[in-house]
Amino acid sequence: MKKISMLILTLIVCAFASWAQSADSVTKMIESQKVTYGQISYFTAIQSNLVTEVASNEEAFAALKNSGVITKDCQASDFIPLEDFAYLCTRAWDIQGSLLYQFFPSPRYALRLLKAKNFIPASYDPFKNLSGRDALNIIYKCAESQETQ
């Protein structure tokens, strides 16, 4: 009986530690004035099932680089422009809808697609650095749209 209760307690502690890691990532994202490739990579790599929730931002970034989602020459600590963020979101959540994006998948057309779907305000500059709150709002809208498909 002691072995079973210890096993259950160990599983609960491991589950809590995993949940705490993702909650910590969300908290750090909300507090960020400018979001980095690493922070966004964490959420998109989890969505794409490339890493688990216990992975670091750098591991998630490396997984996206290795899978070909991130082709740009950048580092996990670099700030991500809105255009590249939109491209990562459309790839991670498999958002379809734009004819130009289907023929020419690129950050430019990904941004136009998310603006057309009202996930991103039309007035936002493609090279704007996003705040953590804005990024999480857009991620939420992308995840919500995938649920309705």
Give short descriptive properties of this protein.
64% helix; 7 helices; globular; 0% strand; 149 residues; mainly alpha
Indicate the mean pLDDT. Answer: 83
Q: Count the helices. How many?
A: 7
Strands, total number = 0
Question: Nearest-angstrom radius of gyration?
Answer: 17 Å
Q: Please state roughly what percent of the residues sit in beta strands, choosing from under 5%, 5-15%, 15-25%, 25-35%, 35-45% or over 45%.
A: under 5%
Low-confidence stretches at least 5 residues in length (pLDDT < 50)? 9-21
Global shape: globular
Question: How far do the termini sit from each other?
Answer: 46 Å
The biggest beta sheet reads: none
Order of helices and strands: HHHHHHH
Secondary-structure-derived class: mainly alpha
Tell me the helix content.
Answer: 55-70%
Explain this structure to me?
It is a single chain. By secondary structure, the chain is mainly alpha-helical. About 65% of the residues lie in helices and about 0% in strands. The chain has 7 helices and no strands. It is globular and about 35 Å long. About 10% of the residues have low confidence.
SSE topology:
Blueprint: H1 2-31, H2 37-47, H3 57-67, H4 82-92, H5 99-103, H6 107-116, H7 132-148
Write a short abstract of this structure.
With 149 residues, the chain is an all-alpha fold. It contains 7 helices and no strands.
